[in-house]
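Mods, move this if it's the wrong board.
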Amino acid sequence: MESNQSNFKHFIRRRGSELIDGEECFRFAGIHTPELHMIEDDVRGQTPAGGLYFKLPTQEEQENWIKAQVYTGAKAQRCYVLSIENVNSQDAPEDRPLCHVLAPLPGSNEPRLNETAMLIYDRMIALADKHQLRLILPFIDHWHWWGGRKELAAFFAEPEDAVYDINSQAFQAYKSLIKQVINRKNTITGRYYHQEKAIMAWETGNELDGTNPEFLEATARWIKQLAPQQLMMDGSFKTLNEYAIESDYVDIISNHLYQFTDDPLVTTLAADLKQVAGRKPYYVGEFGLVSCEEMLAVMNAIADLEVDGHRAVGGLVWGSRGHRRDGGYYWHREHTGHYSYHIPGFTKEGEQNSESEIVDCVRAAAARMAGLESVPALPIPEPPTLLPSDDVAKIDWMGAPVGRYYDIERAESTSGPWQRVGENISDGHNCWDPQSMSLFSDLSDLVGGTRYFYRVFAKNESGVSAASNIISIYFP
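Not the wrong board. Structure tokens:
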């Protein structure tokens, strides 16, 4: 994958209320992919002290997720923040999250990047470039889930909101973190992050509720100084900051549309567009956790609503999880009861979430925003990856991007003849646990003392993949 030549021709830039790719208008819709660089392992639950279990995605997982996004029409995506070490954690070392940002060494005020985690970040950027997906990258979190502004301030025994004070040690550490990230050399592409065309925009952070004019102006000026060819956005939410709209250093205005008031979310969207008034591009970084009907209304408004001649440049539904390397999908259940979405959408398995309706609406919106007359058909799936097994009752595979269902074949030789033993099997279930669950069990018509061979095919409405790899299992 190593290359000094980007697959993108241009950086994304802004022009008035629009984003521009070369001279073409750039608009996008998708389902937010928070875990492109770090996974909350919901199967393991919480750590003894109430934190989250984390793990790093494999290359196969990252590439699978990015392909699924691109194959369903996404042109840009936002991942979640850089996680910050909790120096006051009561968890045992083996239960602590593997963070991107580590505490300063004794005698230093500079936070450190965790090279193990940043190598995965490198790969995310390289794969996004390879498959032509633009990235929006937020720096730190207002919240504590992954470690955020509170944990950064704890490095210096400062109050949890200290980062918003530009005279604090936490703010200087935040600036150092920004500089280290933007000036990092990607170990895969050989480019510095500020040279990566795949990085569409840097965001001050996620839902930075304490943002104030001094904090934003100092941060925005710093980011634009370090990365003048990439865009910068204000990472606050709930209300739009007029000082952000007026700043010479802020390129994009964003908001997260959740049910903070009794107003319909489309009303908030229209009010946001009215306030921005075409002075900057405006996009919806997250929306969701409401009824299917309201979700569809918001997605369609992001694509189509025009206020005083201006439209949103994009919008991302919260949120999706991708295929596991060891079978099934990752999943997440929100406090509202909503589950994360699985692409390309599953009618039965995602019924509680109206998953198929949401995914189809996002695909249709993305097509309209790209100026297409109809929604492009899904590509025929790539072959899935059948996983090694020594038990005919536990046959699993890593699903193909945009594969909906799978057929299983069995033979007594690698040359066949092959017999279909499983048909229209889904891997799109929520609450999947690959340790205790199996996608397929072959327990009929087997003869003891025989070695059987298996292969699997992915399919969707566009066709059937080539065969997967073949595995063999001895049935005693």
